[in-house]
Design goal:
Length: 277
Amino acid sequence: MLNRAVTVFDEFYNKGFCRSTKSLNALLVAGLIAKDYEEVKRIFMEFPQRYKIDPDLETYNNAIKAFCESGSSNSVYSILVDMKKGGVKPNATTFGTLLAGFYVEEKYEDVGKVLNLMKEYGIPVGVNTYNIRIQTLCILKKSNEAKTLLHGMLSKGINPNSVTYNHLIHGFCKEGNLEEAKSLFNSMVNRGLEPDSNCYFNMVHFLCQGGDFEAALKICKDSMEKKWVPKFSTMKSLVNGLVSISKVEEAKELIKNVKKKFSKNANLWDEIEKGLL
Ligand SMILES: *[C@@H]1O[C@H](CO)[C@@H](O)[C@H](O)[C@H]1NC(C)=O
């Protein structure tokens, strides 16, 4: 698919059409979507010169993404030098991508270097930068380190948002630290931040997996108040769990509510309901 795109692009250019940064960027985006990082790098390194196109910030950000997502974040330092020469100023996205790259490669010294570079470039380290760092650490199953960053941002007077908490809660859930997930969920709500639907679904799913059916029921009810019904398999494990701790009435009530809000699966629930009688 991408190869064809490149060929078409080449033909276009050879005929003198459409020599724009915009079409170059579109091609890079197509490469990123296809996760064809080598091709993105090749296009980025060859096309601007071959077709006399000036790369803009978007061009650089796309290329940097390809380097960072393919384990060569280190190459980005020289790209930053080129950007400076070309008078293109990086923005928070540029550095966010680079930070995520260095975290994934576990190059923590470089994380510090990038944060210093941001200062040099006058780009404030705000909530979005923290969120990228927290998300990456959570994916790497280092949720405790991510939580240290949460405390770091709070002590600097940077307010976390719901995205911050969603990442942390999912991270702790996946690591099986449900007490921490519950406590973060509560502090999030206490701060007046709204968990998103996935956050509710994750909590219910992992609390059921951990056998904490009462907590799962409470969160499930809150979620359904917002018309967000967890998927069938999650609901089924909650219902079965409630029955296993002799909360049959609660299980029946839950099924009644689901059928009311989610008529699509009503017949599936009829089966399970029959089993509870
Ligand atoms: C950085 O620049 C890119 C490309 O112009 C843009 O899409 C992105 O939204 C910018 N990021 C921020 C945080 O402003």
